[in-house]
Design goal:
The longest helix is centred in the first third of the chain and has 20 residues. This protein is of the alpha+beta class. Helices cover 33% and strands 20% of the residues. The chain has a five-stranded parallel sheet.
C-alpha cells in the first residue's frame, strides 16, 4: 500500500495522520521535534465554533461572516464557509476524545475573542493548544501501535522530489545522525510559519523555520498573500523571542491604555466603542503603534488586567498570570503590564484550493504554512480550527489518489541533504530579520520595501551561502515583492503611501511563483461563492 508522507506533527499534521489512519491508510508522520513540542502546544486563547452554548443566538453563518469581514474579504468564501459549518462538530469531537475544554452542564463554555460580536471561543484557561494536542496525541497512539501511523521524530525535510509537475516523494535527514532517507509517496506539508525570516522577533517556535515553504517555492509551488503578516497587539520581550499575552486577557475585560498629559487614555474604547479592546488584531496593533507616537504621550502602551475579577484569574487565566510573574516579575492582578505588537502569524503561505491541494499533483499543505481561511487578517481562535480542519481536508484529498501508481521517486540516492548539514549561519539570519522587520513592520512604504529588496538581492549573490539560506532569501524577496505589488492598505498590510483600500484593483489574491531565477507576482481573482455558501 502506498504510504503518505506528512511533514510536521502539530495540530494540522496529527489531524491529517489520524484522518488517514481512520480510513485504514498508512502514513509517515515526520517532524523535527515531538508533537509535545510543536508550535500548536503554545496556542493559548481558544478554538472558534458557533456552538451557541452561551445563549447569544450564534450560528455558523455569523462565524463565516465575521471571518470574511476580519480577513477583509480576501479569503476563498467557499473554503471559509466549509470551515465554519464544520467547526461545531470539530469541537464536539475534541471533547469526545478527552480534550479538557472548560465546560458547564456538559457543554463547552465560550469566551469573547477579537473581531467577533458573539462568545464563540472554546478554551482551556490560556493553554488550549496544549490541551488539544494532548488529546490528539493520545488518539494517534492507538494507530501508531497498529502501524498505520509511523513516526519519524527528529527528522526534517531537505528536499521535495518533483518530476513533471508531480510530487513523487521526499528526502529527509535525521538531525541526530545526519543520515538521509528517500521516501516515495504523496506529501502533506504542515510545517507552520516562516519564523526564521524574523529570527528572534516572533511569538512562534524557532523549530518552524519556513524552510519547507522555501523548498516548495523553489521546486515550483505557488505561494500566496505573503505580504499579510499578523502582528499580535499584546506581546512582551523575552530572550530570543516574543512572548504572547493572550487575547483572552482582553476577552475577560483587560483594557489597553497609554498616558497622555499624566492621564490614562483608553484609546481603543474611545475610538471603537462597540468592540473596544477586542477589535481585529490588525486594527489594535495599528492603534498601539500610533498611541506610542503621540506627542503628549508617554511613548508606551499598557494592558490593565487588574480589572479582571479573581474568579476569572483562578479558573480562566491562572497560567497567563504565572507567565507574567515568571518572565516580567510582575503580578498582572496588581499592576498593568507594558505591551507591544509582535509578529505572531503568517496569513500567507503555500497556495492551496479548498481541498488543500497545491498546484503540484500529490503535494498538499495545511495549517499556518498554507494560505487559506484568513485572508488579510486572522481572527483569534481560527488558527487551531483551520489547522485541524485543513489537515483533515488535505488527508482526504491525498486519500483520493492513494491507489495511483505515479508517486515514486525516479532518481534516488542523490545526497540531496548534504547541504543541510552544519550550514546554519545565525549572522545571516539576524541580518535578514533586521532588514525585513524594518520594511515589513506595521506601517510600510515603497522606499523601505524597495531598499530591503535590493539589500537582500545583493546578499543572495554571496557565494558562501548554503542552499538552505539561498532559498530562505528567495522566500524573503518574494515576500517583499508581494508587499510592493499590493499598492493599497488592507488588513495587516498598511501602506503609508497608499492608505486606502482599493477593491477594484486589489480584491485579489497575490500569487508568487518562481520562473527560473525570477520571482513573479500576479493577482488572481477570489473564487466566486458556490452552492450553499452562495445563499449566505
Amino acid at each position: 500500500m502506498n504510504k503518505i508522507n506528512i511533514i510536521g506533527a502539530g495540530l494540522a499534521g496529527i489531524s491529517a495522520a489520524i484522518t488517514l489512519a481512520e480510513k485504514n491508510y498508512e502514513c509517515r508522520l515526520i517532524s523535527a521535534a515531538s508533537s509535545e513540542r510543536a508550535q500548536s502546544v503554545m496556542a493559548e486563547g481558544g478554538i472558534n465554533a458557533a456552538l451557541d452554548t452561551m445563549g447569544e443566538n450564534d450560528d455558523p453563518i455569523q462565524h463565516f461572516q465575521d471571518t470574511m469581514k476580519g480577513g477583509v474579504y480576501l479569503a476563498d468564501p467557499n473554503a471559509v464557509y466549509e470551515l465554519c459549518i464544520n467547526a461545531p462538530d470539530i469541537v464536539k469531537h475534541l471533547c469526545s476524545i478527552g480534550a479538557a475544554l472548560r465546560i458547564k452542564d456538559k457543554q463547552p463554555i465560550l469566551r469573547n475573542f477579537g473581531g467577533q460580536k458573539k462568545k464563540r471561543t472554546a478554551y482551556a484557561k490560556s493553554s488550549t493548544g496544549k490541551i488539544l494536542m494532548s488529546a490528539l496525541i493520545d488518539e494517534a497512539r492507538k494507530y501508531e501501535v497498529s502501524g498505520l501511523i509511523q513516526r519519524y521524530p527528529h527528522h526534517e525535510l531537505c528536499s521535495l522530489h518533483i518530476d513533471n509537475g508531480i510530487c513523487r516523494g521526499i528526502s529527509i535527514i535525521d538531525i541526530y545522525t545526519n543520515a538521509a532517507i528517500d521516501l516515495d509517496g504523496q506529501t502533506i506539508l504542515c510545517t507552520g510559519g516562516m519564523n526564521s525570516l524574523f529570527s528572534g522577533m516572533t511569538t512562534g517556535t524557532t523549530i518552524n523555520t519556513g524552510d519547507v515553504t522555501a523548498e516548495a517555492f523553489y521546486k515550483g509551488a505557488e505561494l500566496a498573500n505573503l505580504e499579510f503578516i499578523q502582528y499580535h497587539p499584546t506581546t512582551i520581550s523575552i530572550p530570543q523571542k516574543r512572548c504572547l499575552i493572550s487575547e483572552a486577557a482582553r476577552g475577560e475585560g483587560g483594557r489597553l491604555f497609554t498616558v497622555i498629559n499624566n492621564k490614562r487614555s483608553y484609546f481603543m474604547e474611545e475610538k471603537y466603542p462597540e468592540l473596544g479592546n477586542l477589535m481585529p488584531r490588525d486594527v489594535v496593533s495599528r492603534e498601539i503603534a500610533k498611541a506610542k507616537q503621540l506627542k503628549n504621550g508617554c511613548g508606551r502602551v499598557y494592558l490593565d488586567m487588574t480589572v479582571i475579577d479573581e474568579e476569572s484569574w483562578k479558573n480562566k487565566l491562572s497560567d497567563l498570570r504565572d507567565e507574567c510573574i515568571d518572565f516580567l516579575n510582575t503580578d498582572p492582578m496588581k499592576e498593568p503590564v507594558e505591551v507591544s505588537p509582535g509578529i505572531h502569524y503568517f496569513m500567507g503561505g503555500i497556495n492551496v484550493d479548498k481541498k488543500h491541494r497545491t498546484n503540484i499533483k500529490g503535494l498538499y499543505a495545511a495549517g499556518e504554512c498554507a494560505c487559506q481561511y484568513h485572508g488579510a487578517n486572522r481572527l483569534g481562535g481560527n488558527s487551531m480550527l483551520g489547522a485541524l480542519y485543513g489537515g483533515k481536508k488535505a488527508a482526504e484529498s491525498a486519500a483520493e489518489l492513494i491507489n495511483e501508481g505515479c508517486f515514486a521517486i525516479t532518481d534516488k540516492i542523490q545526497n540531496t541533504c548534504s547541504s543541510y548539514i552544519n550550514d546554519q549561519d545565525y549572522t545571516i539570519d539576524k541580518h535578514t530579520a533586521e532588514i525585513l522587520k524594518n520594511a515589513l513592520g506595521i506601517f510600510r512604504n515603497e522606499k523601505k520595501l524597495s531598499s530591503a529588496y535590493d539589500t537582500l538581492s545583493n546578499l543572495c549573490e554571496r557565494r558562501t551561502l548554503s542552499e538552505r539560506h539561498k532559498k530562505r532569501l528567495v522566500l524573503a524577496r518574494a515576500m517583499l515583492l508581494s508587499a510592493l505589488n499590493r499598492r493599497e492598505s488592507r488588513g495587516s498590510h498598511t501602506r503609508e503611501d497608499y492608505p486606502e483600500k482599493n477593491d477594484e484593483k486589489f480584491l485579489k489574491t497575490s500569487i508568487a511563483s518562481l520562473n527560473g531565477n525570477n520571482i513573479e507576482i500576479t493577482l488572481r481573482d477570489i473564487p466566486e461563492m458556490r452552492g450553499n455558501a452562495n445563499e449566505v
